[in-house]
Design a protein that fits this description.
This protein has about 500 residues and is of the alpha/beta class. The chain contains 16 helices and 25 strands. Helix 8 links the parallel strand 11 and strand 12.
Length: about 500
């Protein structure tokens, strides 16, 4: 069985996911077969495996860092929030059902055998497992039958490295306070502290580190710098949402829906020089972009209602009338149609008017489409007509199917890589486009094709536009992450912690 080490944090967004990914890459570079694991992930960013199973994107990112294919064994429980007090519960890639927070709290102990089964299967295949916790282990109201922090560390007999975020301040209180709220046996499992996201002169920090070790009785195994790298973020705490609103030569606005999901779809566009990709949540922020993207969402109907009430829908319709490119992905695609109906109460129930930019009706059902696809842009018009014939690949996660009317037609021909069947995907009408395919911009020729087409329509010289092989780019980022951590962590000590266990 593999040896294990666990990364826990003092709070959400302390940097657990990146530290875990960096260690995965370091262990891989050092010749070990390594895999990530997180027993329970709460996130709206998810991924579909080649088998058609659903898992959190954080563990996909960590698997990429480890140089292996993602598997639902790495994330046996995924919680996808549907509202402020409930989530869809996905176990080993399959939907178990939707539960309120209280119902899941009472139920989760029944999932321990599933967690252990997945962990043991994974541990039998690898030399090292890097386990990630969730939130903070010091949430004392949630400690009963915990399955993701110290509860998981005990099940895996994994020593713990505790990560604190100095960038948001109070890192010493974070680390010591967390330790004080742990039970004595849990405190003994914490073998090292990591101060994360540090900017400045470490010499100034040293007196604090010495006092921290004295009071915590746990060694500091590293001070990790604030690393400006581009890897996929886990959830809506991402700093991308609060990024620069400055407009560049080609301006793309992604509407920040309240329940936005899979916003990692747009990272390839963001990486092209001369392109500003802005996440906007008000009409004032929207301004006058060259392209508006409606992203995926966990609740299409409620987010469409928000779009309507906030005035964003009217602003997008006005931009579309002026010829602005409008594209919807998954739930955003469904919003563009004539109507949405939910006879089974999968989302909000009932029916509502869509934005009316595509002559299509969406009917929701309890059946969830989960598959990987590859295809070719076929029936393209408007500004993006030059994409016709360009291949793409990605994955689908959605509930509901379109019914076309009028002149609207399927935009793409795709092959379902799980079943091998061919089908139509998406629709276009003028400068309005929709697709169910997540990751559609990942291929260099697609991202470059979209940006070049918009540039030509604006009369810009697009001959110098350069996209990138996004998969190759991510590899460079994982190496930069590993280098940054290797240079700042006491890896010799971390290897001793890994070998000694608990």
């Amino acid at each position: 069985m593999a040896k294990a080490i666990m990364i826990q944090g003092t709070m959400s967004n302390a940097g657990k996911s990146l530290v875990a990914a960096g260690l995965c890459r370091i262990f891989r570079q050092d010749g070990y077969r390594v895999a990530p694991f997180k027993s329970q992930n709460m996130a709206l960013n998810s991924f579909i495996t080649p088998e058609g199973l659903e898992m959190g994107r954080a563990q996909v990112m960590q698997a990429e860092a480890a140089g292996i294919e993602p598997s639902v064994l790495m994330n046996p429980i995924l919680l996808k929030p549907t509202n402020d007090s409930g989530s869809q519960v996905i176990v080993r890639g399959e939907v178990l059902g939707s539960m309120s927070a209280w119902d899941y709290y009472e139920y989760k102990s029944k999932l321990v055998p599933k967690v252990l089964e997945a962990y043991n299967e994974l541990a039998a295949q690898y030399d090292v497992i890097v386990i990630e916790g969730a939130g903070s282990p010091a949430e004392i109201n949630l400690k009963r039958e915990d399955i993701v922090n110290m509860g998981m560390a005990k099940m895996a007999k994994a020593p713990v490295l505790l990560v604190g975020d100095i960038d948001r301040g109070g890192v010493f209180a974070q680390l010591i306070g967390t330790l004080l709220l742990l039970d004595k046996d849990e405190q003994e499992m914490v073998k090292g502290l990591i101060v994360n996201k540090f900017r400045g002169d470490r010499a100034i920090l040293e007196p604090g580190l010495r006092l921290l070790e004295e009071k915590a009785k746990v060694p500091v195994v590293g001070v990790a710098p604030y690393l400006n790298i581009q890897v996929e973020d886990e959830d809506s705490l991402t700093e991308r949402f609060e990024g620069n609103q400055q407009v560049d030569l080609i301006d793309i606005a992604v509407v920040r829906l309240p329940r936005i999901s899979n916003f990692t779809d747009f990272n390839p566009l963001e990486s092209i020089p001369g392109v500003s990709l802005r996440y906007v949540k008000t009409v004032q922020e929207l301004q006058n972009p060259d392209m508006v993207i409606l992203p995926g969402t966990k609740n299409t109907m409620e987010d469409l209602q928000w779009l309507r009430q906030s005035g964003m829908e009217a602003a997008i319709l006005k931009l579309s009338g002026k010829g602005c490119v409008v594209m919807g992905i998954c739930g955003g695609y469904q919003m563009l149609g004539s109507s949405l109906s939910d006879p089974e109460g999968v989302e909000a129930g009932g029916s509502m008017r869509g934005m009316g930019l595509l002559q299509m009706d969406t009917v929701f059902s309890s059946k969830k489409t989960r598959t990987q696809v590859e295809g070719v842009f076929q029936q393209m018009g408007g500004t993006l007509k030059a994409l016709q014939g360009v291949p793409f690949s990605g994955y689908e996660i959605h509930m509901g199917e379109p019914v076309f009317a009028g002149d609207t037609h399927g935009m793409n021909q795709v092959t379902d890589r799980v079943t091998g069947t061919m089908k139509q995907d998406g629709a276009c009408a003028g400068n309005v486009y929709g697709t169910y395919v997540h990751g559609i911009f990942d291929r260099e020729e697609v991202a470059k094709g979209v940006v070049s087409a918009i540039g030509r329509a604006k009369g810009l010289d697009v001959s110098e536009i350069q996209a990138m092989d996004f998969a190759a780019f991510k590899e460079t980022q994982y190496d930069l992450l590993a280098d940054g951590l290797r240079n700042s962590l006491d890896m010799e000590r971390i290897y001793r912690i890994l070998e000694e266990g608990v």
